[in-house]
Amino acid sequence: MICSVLNVPELELDKIDCKTKLSSYERKLLSELCTILEPFDKATVLVQGEKTVTASLPIPVTLGLKHQLKLISVDYNCKMIKSLKSSVEERLFQFVEDEAYILASFLDPRFKTRWCETEQIDQCLAVVKDKLSQVPTSSEPPCDQNSPPCKRAKNDDLFSFMPAPSVERKRNPSGISVSSEMDDYLSDNCIDMSKTSFVLA
Q1: 121-170, pLDDT tens digit by residue?
Q2: Which residues pair with 199 in a beta bridge?
Q3: Residue 52 per-residue DSSP state
Q4: H or E element: which one contains 149?
Q5: Is the pTM of this model over 0.70?
Q6: How many Å is the Cα radius of gyration of the chain?
Q7: CA distance linking residue 76 with residue 118, whole number of Å
Q8: Interatomic CA distance for residues 11 and 198, integer angstroms
Q9: Burial letters for 124-146: b for 16+ Cβ neighbours within 10 Å, e otherwise?
């Protein structure tokens, strides 16, 4: 709503017969507010899916919000930025340490370990390997399909903190053990980020 009002040119707004007019300062303040809240709007839309898989999103979204808040430069809303940073850390970082969400993010072929800081990758892989060690091995060979290359969706700022996926690597031909399957999974490119959700059947 606020952004819609700000999209109307100031001269057009001045023509509207209204007792209260927005000053230049107020327009700037509201413009900053729209910039600050835009990543939160995107995050809300992403994680509130009812018919899509969203369990893999809390960690990348939380880290994306933290990253976006660092990038925002404002003149008037500095306290709000500081408060939002603190709130994201306090309320959302519980997901970053949660094993279920770590597994969900890792198993999402859009993310894999791209959301991890370098020092977190080993921790993430340890959690996954621990769970994989509990899975009985199969004698069937792995599926031989190649994943499409990962591309960033246009205007996908929320996940801009993640590095681009590495170049395609050769698959492990043995693929019998669960560990080999995990290596194969990690060696495949991520799927396109524009595929923002997986529809539940």
Answers
A1: 888 888 888 888 887 765 555 454 555 555 555 446 777 877 776 545 44
A2: 52
A3: B
A4: none
A5: yes
A6: 22
A7: 35
A8: 45
A9: bbeebeeeeeeeeeeeeebeeee
